[in-house]
Amino acid sequence: MKKRLIPLGLFMVLLVFLAIGLTRDPHEIPSPLIGKPAPVFTAPVLGQSGQAFASKDMLGKVWLLNTWASWCVACRQEHPLLVEFVKTNPLIIIGLDYKDKEADGLKWLARYGNPYTQAVVDADGRIGIDFGVYGVPESFLIDKAGVIRYKQIGPFTEEALRDKLIPLVKELNL
Known about the structure:
The chain has 174 residues and is of the alpha/beta class. The protein has one domain (29-172): Glutaredoxin (3-Layer(aba) Sandwich), CATH 3.40.30.10. It has helices spanning 2-22, 73-88, 102-112, 126-131, 158-172; strands at 42-44, 52-54, 63-68, 92-98, 118-122, 138-142, 148-153. It starts with a helix and ends with a helix.
């Protein structure tokens, strides 16, 4: 009799985990990097051979690292929002062209606009791996001390910009 209850018990445990999982927002994946120093990196500047961007040069500034790629469908949703966002918000946005061909990244920016203070290349994805990127787009808000304060998984929406990013940027710039 007890052996027959084991599968029923396992099924009930699985049901509980499923119910918990269905109540969570898939964009709210906790990042172990929140509250920790951002990975330090140096990357070539997109379209400017011989020039490099070093994240350590951003110390003392609040900035956003936005991973994107020309092949990314979701990036097409987010990109116009970022282009409009930078027109009225003085936030430094560094674009990390993730696992993309440099020529394709340049065409993308020429076609859709360039919201980035600097666009850099991560052709092999190593920088993205250091940041724990699951897929593009993902963004990381980094404070003046070089600590990651916020992670946006997936494309920004107007609500996320207004309700999460802008208030946090204002707080960090005090």
